[in-house]
């Protein structure tokens, strides 16, 4: 067994109980899953926990992966559902009550440029993305950070392509407004 095997070959071996195949798959896809979950949650520790849970679910449900499905796509769907489950959980809701959001949490020192295309990873952009409603945040992250096509996002999130396009357009508009609000807030603060 070597790390150059395709995902499909490793999945076959994992289904036969080969532990090394599982380790190679996890190692190969860990960064991508963690990056998605981190961008979605904005919290390192939460992302770490959700990534671990995603890979546990991957192993548990590997037999549910069909021949036609892309492994990476299937794994991101598990990550997305794990994230959604977490945000619906009582522990998340209890944590939110103890950590009220303030406008000071956003670092607004960033001047508005083309946020998404330049893929700026500044704190202000992360904060702005975190202010989006869940459905827009996940769509923006899948499109611009995971580089998925509209069709793949529609399939992954179980909505139609027009809905995905609408969520992207609305999300980008909201991001722009949030970023402009942050820049204006900084200008007022500096004028004092």
Automatic annotation (TrEMBL):
Residues 124-175 form the RNA polymerase sigma factor 70 region 4 type domain. Keywords: DNA-binding, Sigma factor, Transcription, Transcription regulation. CDD domains: Sigma70_r4. Residues 25-91 form the RNA polymerase sigma-70 region domain. The keyword Transcription applies. Belongs to the sigma-70 factor family. ECF subfamily. This is RNA polymerase sigma factor. It comes from Paenibacillus spongiae.
